Amino acid sequence: MIRGLLRTQTAPLRAAVIARPAFNLRATAALPSSVRFYSEEAKKSEEEKKSEETKEESSEEPKDELTLLKESLEASKQETSQFKDRYLRAIADFRNLQDSTKREIQKSKELALKSFARDLLEVADTFDIALKTLVKEEGATTEKKNKELDDLVEGVQLTQNMFLNTMKRHGLEQIEAMGEKFDPNVHEATFEVPQPDKEAGTVFFVQQPGYFLNKRVLRPAKVGVVKAAE
């Protein structure tokens, strides 16, 4: 009797327990469609966000390009300014170099002239000494006059040698023409005369001596040349 009573009381509970899983299965079977819907909405929203970001980026591209052009223009201006500054500095340095070179050349000329003038003073002193030895005396004998004349000639020759040596120290040398083969680069023929005992085309007379200045012809020597026999 008690067992029958318990069976009658637990029967509804069993039925409820057995019926409950069927309800849950139906509920869980309906879940995938809602989840799928939610995922599609999420994907759609993400795609919309991406498209909006792409649109924004595409709309900002011209602005970025314009900014780059402005920056490039500004860099070009700065570079041009630097080149201009360097150019002006180079011009200023070149002009300063020109001025300093001119001053150095002028200074060198003055020093060379000063040295040459100092050397010529020795020649002038020698002339003074030679002239002082020639004193006019009344009643001087012929022998004394000849002696003074010899001294004069000797003094003039000494002065000439001093003068030539002075010029040679400064690059001024006399052209040796006597007995040399005629050279149109250093000689200037003023006349020709046949000379049986001399070779044709050689210099036999120096009318005016020529000079070299630093190994270059300053003045050609005027000479007489032996003419070839006809």
Automatic annotation (TrEMBL):
<dbReference type="InterPro" id="IPR000740">
    <property type="entry name" value="GrpE"/>
</dbReference>
<dbReference type="GO" id="GO:0042803">
    <property type="term" value="F:protein homodimerization activity"/>
</dbReference>
<dbReference type="GO" id="GO:0051082">
    <property type="term" value="F:unfolded protein binding"/>
</dbReference>
<dbReference type="Pfam" id="PF01025">
    <property type="entry name" value="GrpE"/>
</dbReference>
<feature type="region of interest" description="Disordered">
    <location>
        <begin position="38"/>
        <end position="78"/>
    </location>
</feature>
<dbReference type="GO" id="GO:0051087">
    <property type="term" value="F:protein-folding chaperone binding"/>
</dbReference>
<dbReference type="GO" id="GO:0030150">
    <property type="term" value="P:protein import into mitochondrial matrix"/>
</dbReference>
<comment type="similarity">
    <text>Belongs to the GrpE family.</text>
</comment>
<protein>
    <recommendedName>
        <fullName>GrpE protein homolog</fullName>
    </recommendedName>
</protein>
<dbReference type="GO" id="GO:0001405">
    <property type="term" value="C:PAM complex, Tim23 associated import motor"/>
</dbReference>
<comment type="function">
    <text>Essential component of the PAM complex, a complex required for the translocation of transit peptide-containing proteins from the inner membrane into the mitochondrial matrix in an ATP-dependent manner.</text>
</comment>
<dbReference type="GO" id="GO:0006457">
    <property type="term" value="P:protein folding"/>
</dbReference>
<keyword id="KW-0496">Mitochondrion</keyword>
<keyword id="KW-0143">Chaperone</keyword>
<dbReference type="InterPro" id="IPR013805">
    <property type="entry name" value="GrpE_CC"/>
</dbReference>
<dbReference type="InterPro" id="IPR009012">
    <property type="entry name" value="GrpE_head"/>
</dbReference>
<dbReference type="GO" id="GO:0000774">
    <property type="term" value="F:adenyl-nucleotide exchange factor activity"/>
</dbReference>
